[in-house]
Amino acid sequence: MRHLTPADYTRQPWKNGKGNTTELWRLERDGQLLVRLSRASVVEDGPFSLFPGIERNLTVLFGPGFRLTGPGLDFRCEPLVPVAFPGDVEVTATETNGQQSDDFNVMTAQALARPQVIVARNDSLPAKGTLALYALGPCRINGAAVNRDDLVLTDGPARLDGDWPVIAVRLQLP
């Protein structure tokens, strides 16, 4: 089990220059992105960055949410409801109404199996691939104390206990 805290994260500008991302964890092979977990804030209407060859999954953590639209896509991003979309399609955030929404992002190479993203609390998650567990408040993972905004990575099962949920991402890594 690997336990990362905000001191381990890196901050970087968005590809489109319209904001910043806090990168929580990244896995590359031969210089190619396989997985990236990050946090960002959507504060105004505008285009999302394009990521060819990448599948995206976004979960609004805090704030009112917003609408994402693009060719063949039109959905509302609501708090704690994961939504998936291709990274190589131009999408635009609308209906932000000048309010900030913080979100958790999962990016995976299209060659990988799509990740499962759920919101879990007081649950047992079986070992099956790699689990990335992002805490939305203080909780316990496999008996270890975890603080808000910590990320735990494990290839084993996970027992979640506490008053706060986690964003649980199941990855099938090569």
Automatic annotation (TrEMBL):
Domain of life of the source: Bacteria
Coiled coil: none
Name used for this protein in its record: HutD family protein
Source species of the chain: Tabrizicola soli
